[in-house]
Amino acid sequence: MPRLGGRKLWHLLQQDGFPVSRDRLFTLLSENNLLVKRRKKYSVTTCSRHWMRKYPNLIRGFDLERPHRLWVGDITYISLKGGFAYLALITDAYSKRIVGYNLNTTLERDGALRALRMAIDQTPQQKRQGLIHHSDRGCQYCSKEYVKLLTDNGIRISMTEKGDPYENAVAERV
């Protein structure tokens, strides 16, 4: 029984007349690497191995002096009974205010696109002058529609270079 848990094993040993304490059994199992490791349920939200254009990192050494100079985008997941829901967020890096969001049942481009549209609609054009949008290299952010929406609104595009979460730390923290 390779996936039998420690507590069930302890109960079976008690029934068969082996008087070992639960703590002693767990110590023995742990010392011999026999404890079953719990698998965490998670969802990968970044698919960066794609054919679409990836943009350079424009924010290395970037100095934030006011809001609406740098927006960061990311997608996170929310675990549900039947699976996952995906929350696309656009955050202003200076104020840490979420300026756009969308909750979607799929990880497709549309959720990220709706979050970006919300952010653009809620921010006047004059405040968006010189704005940079920074994200990971996920296919949602490299898609033709997403890039077109950014360029049509005069927003410069920046992406992480190595897939390191620290390169997009503000978005990852949210």
Key terms for this structure?
single chain, 174 residues, alpha/beta, Nucleotidyltransferase, domain 5, 5-stranded mixed β-sheet, 5 strands
How do you describe this structure in short?
The protein is α/β, with parallel strands linked by helices and 174 residues long. Helices cover 30% and strands 21% of the residues.
Describe this structure in words.
- Helices cover 30% and strands 21% of the residues.
- It has 174 residues and is of the alpha/beta class.
- It folds into two domains: 1-39, no CATH class; 70-173, Nucleotidyltransferase, domain 5.
- The protein has a five-stranded mixed β-sheet with strand order 3-2-1-4-5.
- A hairpin with a 2-residue loop joins strand 1 and strand 2 (83-92).
- Helix 3 (109-122) packs parallel to helix 5.
- The longest helix has 14 residues, at 109-122.
- The model has no long low-confidence stretch (mean pLDDT 83).
